[in-house]
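Teaching note: in complex prediction, the entire set of molecules is handled at once rather than each chain in isolation. The prompt given to students was simply: 'Predict the structure of this complex.' The entities are:
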Amino acid sequence: MTASMSQCLMQMVQTDYQIADYQSDITPRWCTGCGDNAILTAMQRLCRDEQLPPEKTVCVSGIGCASRLPHYMNAYGFHGIHGRALPIAEGIKIRRPDLSVFVTTGDGDCCSIGAAHWIHAVRYNMNMTMLLHDNNVYGLTKKQASPTSPKGLKSNTTPFGATLNPLNPLSVTLGISNVSFVAQVPDWIPELLYDVLSKAYHHKGFSFIRILQRCPNFMNHHFDAAVQDPLRVRMLTHADGLRLKPELSRIYKNQETHDPLDLNRAQALAMLDEEIPVGVLYSNPHVPCYDELRKGKRPSTPQLVETVLNEEFDKVGIWPEGQQATSNGE
Amino acid sequence: MTEYGMQTSSHDAPPNEERTALRKSPASGPAEVIQEHIVEIVSDSGEGAQRCGQSLASIAARSGHGIWTVEIIPAEIQPPHRSIAGASGNRVRMAAHKVTNVGDKADLVIAFNEQVLLSRLNANEIKPGATILIEEMWKCDKDPAVAENYEKVTAEVRSKGYKLFEIPMQTECQKYVPDPTKGKNMFVLGILCTIYSLDTALAEAQVRLTFAKKDQKIVDANLELLAAGQAWAAENLSVRYMIPAAPVVKPQIVTNGNAALALGVVASGMEVCSMYPITPATSASHYLSTIFEKVGCVVHQAEDEISAATFAIGASYAGKCAVTITSGPGLSLKQEAIGLAVMTEIPLVVIDVQRGGPSTGLPTKVEQGDMMSAMFGSHGDAPKVVMAVDSIEDCFYSVITARKIAETFNMVVVILSDAALSTAQQPFDRPEFNPDWLAPPVNQSAVPEDAHPYDWDERTGIATRFIPGQPNGMHCLTGLAHDRDSHVAYDPQINEEGLLNRSRKLAALQKTLRLAPVYGDEEGDLLLIGWGSTRGAIEEAVKIMRAKGHKVSSLHLKFIQPMAAGIDAVMKRFGKVMTIENNWNDPESDPLIDPSNRRYSHLAMLLRSRWLVDVDCWGNARGQPLKPAEIIEAAMAKLDDKKPTAGGQ
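The expected output is the structure of the full assembly:
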């Protein structure tokens, strides 16, 4: 993985990436008013502020409205198959620590068809940032109930109302071994969306962000209560978590100082019924990362391969009379 | 996998000098010279018959014999003791010449109880009149039912004309170890070394190797048991055989198919293997796990088969081609991911160690049942390369070839092995490492400004892929239909452009393939066509038939998709053509079956549809490797235009 001289020079010259450098030549085709637009903007702003080289940035997704995001980023993108964004992202990261990896997924993609991968991705705790665009409904397939849909939701598959209580992505994630970063933020407060994304990006390990995302087409007014009544939002603030600017602090008066290392309190907050917790629920930078644990202790070179192969051949070798093992034979 | 416990010799062991004296003259009479023998060692699971068999095979191989071993495996880890279903052990075919398959029926069986012996007799795996050695402790068992069973089976064995020898394994081993259930296997190994006139020094060296990781006391105890077995056989048994050995002229290695696959992964330069445990594929990953980290690489045990495949795709996308190793049910689960790799043109090697199907099927047993699902298992038109390994050695080299094809053509390459090759052992020429086997470093150079991620070459269909990290190469891969810029496109013409180029790559690869030479004459009355692990058995059958004057030849296919050109020309030179496959086909003798509904074996179906030739097929799906004698019977029936008896269908 060597860069040519001219390439290095080019990179040195072009260190000042602008927002436009992360915008692909495709205009986003999400509906007007879709929360995904806000998420894309926050992503591009993060890349600009962190000056991530587009060629070193990889956005991975599954299937669904949210999973179209990589197409709109000028970066490397992998729009995969339904539910499998996380294992693809893990494969990318396992040998490429130099790449910044983002995973964008929806509530159907992550919490339903890809639920197994979600649980194990949290457990692997690889260095990457995951954005769960949770609009509580299947959008791309035209309004079916998702695992996070509220009970009673009338959809095309539940015309008489969804029968089950929704799955809670926050409490599920917080309950998985090796969880290291869990945050929640709505799409309608762009300032906070960016701040949480930035916290997640800087966290060492697997960062899980649940974004409450409005779907104007199929779940119009679903989040209105929280959008219109700031007291329904409980802001979790902390020196190691979210810090509210005065202008936001004036609007969102329902605040709680929450230590992101307090897992028990995080679980309690995740289970809040009437209020929406916003901010960093849990952040622990000391959880071991699978990609670091599995990092090769030495680079794979032809010499090394030859040596190891010969050692293995010697163990099961048969030699003509008089010849001996070449190395380490038994 | 037994090894005898911590105590060394017990008090009744003969003094050292006496044992040394015995070892000097292991054979009491002249040994009968034979060209080959098939030996089976069977016990309850956990009594060590497998280790005994593997050790016997290694000693024979080191002596210069051709060998082929097959494990006899119960499906459960701890099946009931003394049960027919629980027979566990090893079949070793030893010969004066190179051996390429499991062979026919066993010439000599050594059984640790009468129930496991019965299992082999019921399976019709033992030659009439064969020599049978059996542990005799059961005849005085406390439980009268056990003693009765023992008497019943041994009486039956005698009455059927087998040469039965009852061996006091337990009593003899008790002289050396407190718990003979752990240790009998080395006593038995000693017996077999005497019977087959094998070199004591080689046998001792093998025991040391087998227990290399154990305490010296354990090594010594097992050496003692080996010597005891040799001595007991020398004094009490009259059977002696001598298989002439050809001196080893080139360095060899002895591995099973799965170990060879794992070594092939290392030699191919792939750096990531992601897998999910599944029988009979997993032992390849077990072995790879012990060596892959030494070369700076990773075996990732994923949470399921789908993530094993998608993880490998992610790793391939970000650098060098990766591999996922599985078996039939896993291949089914991976199919959508395989389609993604096809569509995005990400190189991927998939190793499928086939087992009996459908569904959970016969997890530990062989079947060549996955050819069609490897070719067509993913929805839509998803062209991929499918190749089949036909020997242990081929397992090693095929992985190297597969990686190269995958990265040259940006394609999925499926390697079909099977349960027969997975545990079978065979010596082959020690590979000499070649740095060209490995993948070049990951390309991180800047992409030219005017290049597109899918700049399909008109002649080959190949596009140079852009790898993350390459400046100017940013694009979004997608499983959706896409244009040369990797932009989502539903335009009919663009969709067909992608289909054409992905398909064209197979044709381009096909132009580079050469058909394997015909085994036997280039023309004749009957051509047998096979693929995969059946090669050795088919060619042995052809050899025997040709020696008797029959005009039979065989052709063995390495590449299933694409298939080398020229098969039609070969087929035309034979009066009849029949595939030999270890999978299901509808028997023509079934009253419901007629030409309008007969379901053929996989390869026969392919050849018929491509060449419009009336290719017949013979095979079975009994979970056992095909045997030369069965193939001869089927081929003779075909020659004589009789309906074959269809090998037990």
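Point out the following to students. DSSP finds 13 helices and twelve strands in chain A. The domain at 13-293 of chain A is CATH 3.40.50.970 (Rossmann fold).
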